[in-house]
Amino acid sequence: MNANDYRPRLVLGIDPGLTGAVAALDPHHRVELLEDLPTVARGGGRVRRELDPAGLTHLLRPIAGDVRLAVVEQVASRPGQGVASVFSLGHTAGAICGVLAALGIPMVLVPPTAWKKAAGVPSGSDKGMSRTIAARLHPGIDLSRKRDHNMADALLLARYGMASEAA
Fold first, then answer.
1. Tens digit of pLDDT for each residue in 128-163?
2. pTM of the predicted model as reported, rounded to 2 decimal places
């Protein structure tokens, strides 16, 4: 095999948000990376957390050349969400897209309804259902904490990307 024959092999799944996560799977669905999204404290009088784009770049740079696709959950506002939280989510998703573009990683935005349906997560189910399904698919990964639903979502997003590429 020469250098021109190399095909990137990893698929990323990214659940955006301040408590989001990123997962990388190889073609055999082995977990190569599973991390919370890095955040940093910002603000003057009122400290708030936001995505750390430099931290995300640092996390992804070592594997960027091996990534053939990043699947990012498409964010949207929902009834009852506050303006500040919607803006924060949009800002985080935009920063993620910027980091992926800067690293040369191809990406697609996928609505939650699409990847959840493909993963078998029933519509309207609680966040624990993603954890249950991801834990069954990846028995070596501990997803027992409630807050691990974001890691579970990232894993299921990556699996969605692998399945949609195969189709």
1. 899 999 999 999 999 998 889 999 999 999 999 999
2. 0.87
Amino acid letter, residue 3: A
Alpha helices (runs of H) in 15-148, residue ranges in sequence order: 53-60, 83-102, 112-119, 128-137
Q: Can you name the residues that pair with 11 across neighbouring β-strands?
A: 25, 69
Closest to 54 in 3D by CA, of 39, 64, 67, 66: 39
Instruction: Give per-residue pLDDT as tens, 8-24.
Output: 799 999 999 888 999 99
User: Smallest Cα–Cα separation from 61: which of 96, 97, 102?
Assistant: 102
In the chain, what are the domain boundaries? 3-166
Sign, CA dihedral 66-33-48-88, equals positive
Kindly state the percentage of the chain with pLDDT values over 90: 63
| Span 72-97, pLDDT tens digits | 998 765 666 555 555 566 678 888 99
Determine contact, residues 64/103, Cβ cutoff 8 Å.
Answer: yes
- Taken as a whole, the chain contains a residue count of 167
Domain range 3-166, its CATH number among 3.30.420.10, 1.20.1090.10, 2.120.10.30, 3.30.428.10: 3.30.420.10
